Amino acid sequence: MKKKICTFFSLVFYICVTAEDENCPTIIKRNQWHNKPVTNVNYLILPIPYVIIHHTVTPGCDTKLKCTSRVESIYSHHVNDFGWSDIGYSFLIGGDGNVYEGCSWNQEGAHTYGYNKKSIGIAFIGNFQENFASDKMLEAAHKLILCGKSQGILRENVRVLGARQVGSTASPGLELFNQIQNWPEWTSQP
Q: Tell me: the pLDDT tens digits for 137-154?
């Protein structure tokens, strides 16, 4: 039997996570790559209707050590160069096939102007303008979406979009954008 673990954030807002959910990928928790607390948090209203796919336009990574370092570097760039209070992405997908927790399921990110309050942002670590994301990365991302749906965090009919569909950007890179169009949750219309 699976055990539900609920976290209450206010009188009307909480998240329940099913322990050992077979739909969930390996998620490297935030405290495994970063130890500074977040100071300015806005919470999302669940269930979330959109997932926005990005790429980081950085070198890729293929080991947990390299990916952890890359995620910390992206965090530093967002906080120190952009002046944000946290990393902008909800989750990042490494070339090692792991999912790295950013601002997570319930906190508003800074990944897609106009969609931050109604989406999670999943960033693939690397540049996918001319390169395909590996099957391992795609599987981790899709498993993360299934995990969110199974836990009621994402709407059952969640819509997946490339950031380029809703903003002036080349993200998630042309090749990755072509790959996500094969996902059942992808939609051509926001």
A: 999 999 999 999 999 999
The amino acid that residue 146 corresponds to is: L
Whole-model pTM? 0.88
The answer to whether the beta carbons of residues 109 and 116 sit under 8 Å apart is yes
- Bridge partners of 121, per DSSP, are 52
Classify the C-alpha dihedral 71-77-78-84 as positive or negative.
Answer: positive
CA–CA separation, 70 vs 24, rounded Å? 23
Please, what sign has the CA dihedral across residues 147, 151, 56, 70?
A: negative
Using the Cα atoms of residue 78, residue 101, residue 137 and residue 190 in order, give the sign of their dihedral: negative
Tens-place pLDDT, residues 85-97: 999 999 999 999 9
**At 15, which helix (H) or strand (E)?**
strand 14-18
**3-state secondary structure at position 79:** helix
